[in-house]
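Quick one - first record:
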Amino acid sequence: MRVLHHPILGDETRKIDATIIVDGRKIPAIEGEPIAATLLSAGIKKFRETQKNHKPRGIFCAIGRCTDCVMTVDGIPNVRTCVTPVKDGMIISTQKGLGEWGGKK
């Protein structure tokens, strides 16, 4: 799902140089690109579930203003994946409701 040949921006020259773990699945990534871009390129569209009705949510504004793309990243809930860059080895999970803190305080 990546745009490899763009008529204005040209050809994609970045290389896959990282791996993230999403809900236990290894996903190849480009370090530094937004987490949401990596997920979409892997065909993942559901990032979280709403607290009350457990409805799926994914990317909406893509500029960090809303919270539809939040996920738990390295044990920290409510991370906006559209503006958070990929780092090799990140562990990411679909967030349920408000998320649970699993990292260090």
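second record:
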Amino acid sequence: MQRCLAIARNGFGRVAPNPMVGAALVRNSRIISEGYHRGYGLAHAEVEAIGRVQSRDLLPCCTLYVSLEPCCHFGKTPPCTELILASNISRVVVAAADPFPKVSGAGIQRLREAGVEVIVGVLEQEARELNRRFFTFHEKKRPYIILKWAQSADRFIDICRTASEPPAKISGLQAHRLSHKWRTEEQAIMVGANTALMDNPRLTARLWSGNNPVRVVQDESNKLPRTLNVFTEEAPTVVLNGSDVSSWMGKLYGNGVQSVIVEGGAKLLQRFIEASLWDEARVFTSPCKLLRGVAAPRISGAVQRESNVGDDVLQVFLNSGW
């Protein structure tokens, strides 16, 4: 199962809204074939693993390990449960049940009713953590929310300035590139109206190869001119009105958005923090000092990890207990 989880990660950033899944066929305590879900609309992990076995006669003697419950419905691809049954595989080990309503235990039930031995819960927590965006979306009915900002050593995120002045340079190039990589890994990126006006950001992944996220702008009074960079054709843009954080996330959920990075400004970030509506916060702290300016958001949560990114220190906070 550890191998299933490891190869499943190869689909990160390419399979959404599907989950990352890995599968392995084991015979006589040896992996004889494996596969993972490579991209949305492509073959599922079980199909890849079974398809790579050269001799079909080996399959009835194999145990199939899979990091998420096999699907039992027709979607972009046929149900994996039927392929498992047609292959005469008699034992399946599953890390976690699938929270997607069209599966949600039905795949496990289908296999068991057909006489397959099914074991569930091997490395379940690790499997849930791997697909925390997918589980959050289906269980909490909202996107997985990542807060992100860069702050100076004295905890400011910008100088006090007008729209004609450039923002303060806080984080370094390595942190900037990493931020663009993160954009390719999530489905949406969000900023407030003031950030859109003051910084005129493009919110695209220019420094990393991959897909641009959907751009989300919170604009309570519809004051943003459509000449801003967030309205170019580089990526889709969604404008959210109103002031309720939960309703914003409800609208993104309704549009199938599984994850969102909230990048600013300070007031927007603080609203998510005060509502306790966030799962992860990624904070770069630079060695530079601004002495005065726009105060960084105040956050409390468990520090999951800390690392150096060039001259900056990256701290990742967790709020949801994943």
